[in-house]
Design goal:
single chain; two-stranded antiparallel sheet; alpha+beta; Alpha-Beta Plaits
């Protein structure tokens, strides 16, 4: 059975928009069908490395028959194909600069937890750069076990999110 999911994309190395668009195209090869994209937003870095270039971010609504772990594997395969150093590899820096980051935010109504993955994503309700594009695609979205995404957005201070361009192309 196919599920609707949401993926958060981010890039701050190289041609950021091209990296986001390449991600959309790579997902098709992993049984993940992009249905719609938010606008592209420019955002300040958050996390452990703040002294780096601003990110371009977007959220994709996707359809897939993959379960949570296999969908995460697909996201990691796309990151690796586009030049991201993954945890455990030489050159990896947590929250550091990267050509692409693909976060699995939601998968249907699934609440899931493993060593590798938590659904909904642990930080989806605390990151403006995720919530703004997510709510653009699904304004009335309720996160399983967490309430309305719009309520969470109202509670976040700071984190500038500026429209940087139109949605990514999602067609075949």
């Amino acid at each position: 059975m196919n599920e609707i999911g949401y993926l958060g994309l981010g890039s701050n190395v190289g041609d950021r928009r091209t990296n986001l668009q390449a991600t959309v195209e790579c997902l098709w090869a992993h049984d993940v069908v992009p249905l719609a994209s938010s606008s592209v937003y420019e955002t300040e870095p958050v996390g452990e490395v703040l002294d780096q270039r601003a990110f371009f971010n977007a959220v994709l609504r996707v359809e897939t028959r993959l379960g949570p772990e296999r969908l995460l594997d697909a996201c990691k395969a796309v990151e690796k194909a586009l030049g991201r150093k993954l945890a455990g590899e030489d050159g990896y820096v947590k929250h550091g600069p990267r050509p692409i980051d693909v976060d699995l935010l939601l998968l249907g109504e699934v609440e899931y937890s493993s060593e590798r993955l938590t659904l909904p994503h642990r930080e989806v309700m605390s990151r403006r750069f995720v919530l703004v594009p997510l709510l653009e695609l699904a304004p009335d979205l309720e996160l399983p076990g967490r309430g309305l995404a719009s309520d969470a957005l109202e509670r976040i201070d700071g984190q500038d999110v500026i429209v940087a361009g139109p949605p990514l192309e999602t067609g075949p």
